[in-house]
C-alpha cells in the first residue's frame, strides 16, 4: 500500500520530491539532533492523488491519526484536550519554494473550551487568547476564504477603541472579545461557524493546503517559472512552540552569513513575544539578531552553535527560522539561503578556503548573470536616502533622468539632450520611441516578462517594473510613492540591478569588478573572489571565448577581458561617416570605371581599419565578415529625399541631379522585407568588385602587419549562405585576390575562408557547405529569426510579452538559444559539417554567445568557441568553465 505520511524522524534532505523542501529539511535537522518540534509530513503524492481524484486519498485520515497519536504520546497531551491541549501548525511545502499557496496556520487545536485550558496550563491568559484569535483569523481567511482585510480592520478598530498602538497593548479580555468578533465575521461571510472540533480543523487545513496548489497566484508563478503543474505540495504538521509566551519568548530569522555581502557574522532579526510571521510582517519593529545575545545569551549561543552545524552540514549559506519559548530555543525551518551576486562570489571563495567545498563546487555556485550585474556601475547607497519604491529588477544597470509620463515627452526632451526616465503604469508598443529615447523605464505593473521588461532587456536599457507602491497619474503628469509626489521633470534614479528607485540624482560608483577586468586592479575581497572564480573557470573550460569587435579599441578591450580572438568583425560601420560619399558613388556608378574609382578610394581606408584591429589582436584569430546589410541602408531616407526634391520644385529651383539619381537608386533598391532581401553573400555576388575590394584590404593589411613584424591571423567569413554554390563562387573570387596580393607583395597570405551558418537551409545542408568552408560560425540571431519566422525588431515590441505571459516560451529565443528548434539545427550542422570535414572549426557569433544558458548548450553541442560583445566576455568565460563541470546546474545560485 502507498504510504502518505512520514514522521520528521523518518525522512532526510534527499527526499524533497516526496516531502517538499521544507519537510525534507525539517527531517534533516531532526536527524542532526537539532531541537525541532516533533511533527510529520504528508507527501506530495497524497496531494497529487487528491488533485487527480478530487477527494481525500483512501487511508490518509487513518495514517494522520496514527501519526498524531505518536505526537500526542510524545507530548503527553492530546489534540483538543480541554485542560492542556496539544496545538499544531499546518504548513505548505512544495519541492520548490513557491509563493501563492496557502499561508501557514498556527495553533490548530484551540476551541472555546481548550483556550481556557491553555490559559491555565500556561498560566498566561493573554497568551491563550492571543493564540486563539490568531487561529480563528488564519483559519477563517485561508481555509474558509474570508477576506483577511476584514480581520485586520476589526483588529485596527479595537486597537483604536482601546487607544493602543500595537497588538501588545491589547489584554486578554480584549483578545477574547476579538475572537468573538472574528467568529461573527466568519459566520456572516460564510454562513458557517468556526469549527469547534480540532480534528475537523486539522483535516480541513490539510485539504486546504492541497487545494491551494491550484490557487491562481501559485499557478501563475509556476507557469512563469516553468515549474510542472503536477508536482503537488507536501503538508507539514508540527507541534506548536510558542514565541508569544512573554518577554522571555520570541521568534526570529537568521542567516549563517550576510546574504547581501557574504561576510561571516550574525545576521537576522528577532522579535520578542511574537509568533511566526510577526517577524517579517512588520507589525512591530524587530531588533538585529545580536541583540538576542543580550536578551538571552544562552539561547543565542545555542543558536550560533546550530548555525555552525547547519552550515558545515549543508556546506552553504543557510537561512533559518527559529522560536524561543520561555528561554528554550526551537528550530523551525532551514534551507540554503538566497543571496546577492556579491555574496555568491564571496561565499564560494570563503567556503573553498575553509575546505568545505571544492573549487569546482565554488564555481558551480556562482554564475554569469550575477557577474554581469557586478560589472555595472552602482549607486552609492550610503549617499542616497531611502528608496522611493521597490520593483522587479528587470534589466540591470543604474540610470538617472527626469521622470516623464509619455513617449512623446520622452522623445521631445531627449532630442534636446535631456536624460529622461519613462514612467508608465505598463508599456505598450506605442511607447517604443519613448523607451528608445529614455535612460531607463519604470513601470508600476507587470513582471519580468511584461512588455517593458522584455523590450528593455532587448535594448540593454535599465528597467524596473512592477513597482507597485508607485501610483502613476499620466493625466496630471506625476506619480506618487509612499508620501512623495514626483512631478514631471523631477530627476529620479533607477537601479535596474536591485529593483530600486531613488529620489534625485544618486551618485554612481564604478564597479570594482569592472576595474579588475579593465586593469587587473585587485581592490577588495569581492574582486579577489571574482578573480578566483575566473581563474578556475579558465582552467577547466574547453570552449574558447572570442569577442565581437569592429574597432581597434573594442578589440583591445576584449583582449583585456580575456578574449582569445575576434569571432565577428563586422565591416558595415566602416562604410559610414565620411565614407558614405564613396559608398554612394559606388552604388550610383554607371560605368565600371566610376565604380572602380569609388572602390579604389575605399580600399586604403578599409585596409587601415583592418591593420589596427589585427594589431590589437596580434597573434590571435580575427574573423572578418564581408559586408552583410542591404546597400540601401547606406543611402539617404526615401521620404527625406522625395521631400527635398519636392521642396526644390516648389521653390522653382532645378532639382539636384545627384538627389534625383539617389532617389532613383533608392526606389530601385527598395525592399518590402530587407531582412530577407539583397544582403549577405547575395550582395557580394551581384555588386561587382565589392568582395574583391574587401578581401584585398584584408590581405594587404595582413602583409603590412607581417612586414611590421606582427603575427596577423585574419579569417574571412561569408555571411548569409543558403547553398554551397554561393560559397563556391565567392570563394573563387576570394582566393584569386589572396593569390594576387601574395604575388604582388611577395608575402604569402593564406587566410582561412569560412561561412556563417545563419539560415535553416545552410544548417540542413551543412555537409555540402563544409566542402567549401574551412570554418563555420553560427549567426544565431539571424538563425533564430529565420527559423521562427520572426523579425526581431517587430515581434519583441509587439507581442513577445504576451507570448511569455502565456508560457509559450520561458525566455525570448533571442536571449537564450531555443534548444529544441534552433539548437537542433545547430546540432545537425555540427554533426554533418564535421562528418564532411573532420576537425572543422565551429563557433557562434550571435548574442547568444554571451548568454549563460546558451553557453552551456554550445559547450554540449561541441562547438570550439563562443564569441560575444567585449563586455560579455567574462560572463562567457565563467559559464564555459561551469559548463565543463559535469552534472552542474546551469542557473545562478541566486
Ligand atoms: P513560510 O513558508 O511562509 O515561511 P512557514 O510554514 O515557515 O511559512 O510558517 C510561517 C511562520 O510560522 C514561520 O515564521 C514559522 O516559523 C512559524 N511556525 C510554523 N510552524 C510553527 C510551529 N510548529 N511552532 C511555532 N511557529 C511555527
Ligand atoms: Mg518559513
Ligand atoms: Mg546575420
TrEMBL record:
PANTHER family associated with the record: PHOSPHOENOLPYRUVATE DIKINASE-RELATED, PYRUVATE, PHOSPHATE DIKINASE 1, CHLOROPLASTIC
Enzyme class: transferase
Protein name: Pyruvate, phosphate dikinase
All copies of domain Pyruvate phosphate dikinase AMP/ATP-binding, residue ranges: 63-285, 295-348
NCBIfam families cross-referenced by the UniProt entry: PRK05878.1, pyru_phos_dikin
PROSITE patterns membership: PEP_ENZYMES_PHOS_SITE
Catalytic function, reaction form: pyruvate + phosphate + ATP = phosphoenolpyruvate + AMP + diphosphate + H(+)
Recorded GO MF terms: ATP binding; kinase activity; metal ion binding; pyruvate, phosphate dikinase activity
UniProt-listed SUPFAM superfamilies: Glutathione synthetase ATP-binding domain-like (SSF56059), Phosphoenolpyruvate/pyruvate domain (SSF51621), Phosphohistidine domain (SSF52009)
Amino acid at each position: 500500500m502507498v504510504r502518505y505520511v512520514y514522521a520528521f524522524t523518518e525522512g532526510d534532505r534527499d527526499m524533497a520530491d516526496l516531502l517538499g523542501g521544507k519537510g525534507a529539511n525539517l527531517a534533516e535537522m531532526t536527524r542532526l539532533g537539532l531541537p525541532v518540534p516533533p511533527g510529520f509530513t504528508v507527501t506530495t503524492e497524497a496531494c497529487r492523488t487528491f488533485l487527480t481524484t478530487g477527494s481525500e486519498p483512501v487511508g490518509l485520515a487513518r495514517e494522520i491519526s496514527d501519526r498524531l497519536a505518536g505526537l500526542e504520546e510524545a507530548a503527553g497531551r492530546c489534540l483538543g484536550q480541554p485542560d492542556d491541549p496539544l496545538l499544531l501548525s499546518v504548513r505548505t511545502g512544495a519541492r520548490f519554494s513557491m509563493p501563492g499557496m496557502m499561508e501557514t496556520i498556527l495553533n490548530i487545536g484551540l476551541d472555546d473550551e481548550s483556550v481556557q485550558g491553555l490559559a491555565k496550563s500556561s498560566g498566561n491568559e493573554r497568551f491563550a487568547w492571543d493564540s486563539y484569535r490568531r487561529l480563528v483569523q488564519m483559519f477563517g481567511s485561508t481555509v474558509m476564504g474570508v477576506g483577511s482585510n476584514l480581520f485586520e480592520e476589526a483588529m485596527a478598530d479595537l486597537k483604536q477603541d482601546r487607544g493602543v498602538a500595537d497588538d501588545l497593548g491589547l489584554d486578554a479580555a480584549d483578545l477574547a472579545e476579538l475572537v468573538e468578533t472574528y467568529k461573527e465575521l466568519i459566520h456572516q461571510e460564510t454562513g458557517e461557524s468556526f469549527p469547534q472540533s480540532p480534528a475537523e480543523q486539522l483535516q480541513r487545513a490539510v485539504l486546504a493546503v492541497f487545494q491551494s496548489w491550484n490557487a491562481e497566484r501559485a499557478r501563475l508563478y509556476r507557469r512563469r517559472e516553468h515549474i510542472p503543474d503536477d508536482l503537488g505540495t507536501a503538508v507539514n504538521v508540527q507541534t506548536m512552540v510558542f514565541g508569544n509566551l512573554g518577554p522571555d519568548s520570541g521568534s526570529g530569522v537568521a542567516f549563517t552569513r550576510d546574504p547581501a555581502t557574504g561576510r561571516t557574522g550574525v545576521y537576522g532579526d528577532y522579535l520578542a513575544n511574537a509568533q511566526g510571521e510577526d517577524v517579517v510582517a512588520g507589525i512591530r519593529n524587530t531588533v538585529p539578531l545580536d541583540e538576542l545575545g543580550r536578551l538571552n545569551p544562552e539561547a543565542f549561543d545555542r543558536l550560533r552553535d546550530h548555525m555552525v552545524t547547519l552550515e558545515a552540514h549543508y556546506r552553504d549559506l543557510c537561512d533559518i527560522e527559529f522560536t524561543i519559548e520561555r528561554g528554550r530555543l526551537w528550530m523551525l525551518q532551514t534551507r540554503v539561503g538566497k543571496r546577492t551576486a556579491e555574496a555568491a562570489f564571496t561565499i564560494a571563495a570563503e567556503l573553498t578556503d575553509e575546505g568545505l567545498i571544492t573549487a569546482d563546487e565554488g564555481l558551480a555556485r556562482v554564475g554569469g548573470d550575477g557577474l554581469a550585474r557586478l560589472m555595472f556601475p552602482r549607486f552609492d547607497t550610503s549617499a542616497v536616502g531611502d528608496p522611493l519604491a521597490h520593483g522587479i529588477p528587470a534589466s540591470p544597470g543604474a540610470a538617472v533622468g527626469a521622470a516623464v509620463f509619455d513617449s512623446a515627452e520622452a522623445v521631445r526632451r531627449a532630442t534636446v539632450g535631456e536624460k529622461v526616465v519613462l514612467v508608465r503604469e505598463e508599456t505598450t508598443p506605442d511607447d517604443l520611441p519613448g523607451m528608445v529615447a529614455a535612460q531607463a523605464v519604470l513601470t508600476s505593473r507587470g513582471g519580468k516578462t511584461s512588455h517593458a521588461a522584455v523590450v528593455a532587456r532587448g535594448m540593454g536599457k535599465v528597467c524596473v517594473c512592477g513597482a507597485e507602491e508607485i501610483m502613476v497619474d499620466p493625466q496630471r503628469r506625476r506619480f506618487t510613492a509612499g508620501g512623495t509626489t514626483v512631478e514631471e521633470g523631477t530627476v529620479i534614479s533607477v537601479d535596474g540591478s536591485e529593483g530600486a528607485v531613488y529620489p534625485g540624482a544618486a551618485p554612481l560608483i564604478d564597479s570594482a569588478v569592472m576595474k579588475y577586468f579593465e586593469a587587473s586592479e585587485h581592490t577588495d575581497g569581492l574582486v579577489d573572489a571574482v578573480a578566483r572564480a575566473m581563474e578556475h573557470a579558465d582552467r577547466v573550460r574547453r570552449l574558447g571565448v572570442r569577442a565581437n569587435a569592429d574597432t581597434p579599441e573594442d578589440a583591445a578591450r576584449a583582449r583585456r577581458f580575456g578574449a582569445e580572438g575576434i569571432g565577428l568583425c563586422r565591416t558595415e560601420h566602416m562604410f559610414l561617416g565620411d565614407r558614405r560619399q564613396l559608398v554612394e558613388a559606388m552604388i550610383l556608378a554607371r560605368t565600371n570605371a566610376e565604380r572602380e574609382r569609388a572602390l579604389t578610394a575605399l580600399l586604403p581606408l578599409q585596409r587601415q581599419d583592418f591593420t589596427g584591429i589585427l594589431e590589437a589582436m596580434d597573434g590571435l584569430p580575427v574573423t572578418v565578415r564581408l559586408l552583410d546589410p542591404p546597400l540601401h541602408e547606406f543611402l539617404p531616407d526615401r521620404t527625406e529625399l522625395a521631400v527635398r526634391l519636392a521642396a526644390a520644385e516648389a521653390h522653382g529651383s532645378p532639382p539636384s541631379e545627384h538627389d534625383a539619381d539617389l532617389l532613383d537608386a533608392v526606389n530601385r533598391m527598395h525592399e518590402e522585407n530587407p531582412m530577407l532581401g539583397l544582403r549577405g553573400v547575395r550582395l557580394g555576388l551581384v555588386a561587382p568588385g565589392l568582395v574583391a575590394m574587401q578581401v584585398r584590404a584584408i590581405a594587404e593589411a595582413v602583409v603590412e602587419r607581417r612586414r611590421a613584424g606582427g603575427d596577423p591571423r585574419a579569417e574571412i567569413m561569408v555571411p548569409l549562405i543558403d547553398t554551397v554554390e554561393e560559397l563556391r563562387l565567392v570563394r573563387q573570387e576570394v582566393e584569386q585576390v589572396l593569390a594576387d596580393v601574395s604575388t604582388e607583395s611577395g608575402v604569402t597570405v593564406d587566410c582561412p575562408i569560412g561561412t556563417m551558418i545563419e539560415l535553416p537551409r545552410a544548417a540542413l545542408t551543412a555537409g555540402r557547405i563544409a566542402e567549401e568552408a574551412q570554418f563555420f560560425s553560427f549567426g544565431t540571431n539571424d538563425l533564430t529569426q529565420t527559423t521562427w519566422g520572426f523579425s526581431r525588431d517587430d515581434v519583441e515590441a509587439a507581442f513577445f510579452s504576451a507570448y511569455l505571459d502565456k508560457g509559450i516560451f520561458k525566455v525570448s529565443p533571442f536571449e537564450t538559444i531555443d534548444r529544441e528548434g534552433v539548437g537542433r539545427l545547430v546540432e545537425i550542422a555540427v554533426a554533418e559539417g564535421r562528418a564532411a570535414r573532420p576537425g572543422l572549426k565551429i563557433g557562434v557569433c550571435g548574442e547568444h554567445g554571451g548568454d549563460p544558458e546558451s553557453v552551456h548548450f554550445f559547450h554540449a553541442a561541441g562547438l570550439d568557441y563562443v564569441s560575444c560583445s567585449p563586455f560579455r566576455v567574462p560572463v562567457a568565460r565563467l559559464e564555459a568553465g561551469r559548463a565543463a563541470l559535469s552534472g552542474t546546474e546551469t542557473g545562478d545560485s541566486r
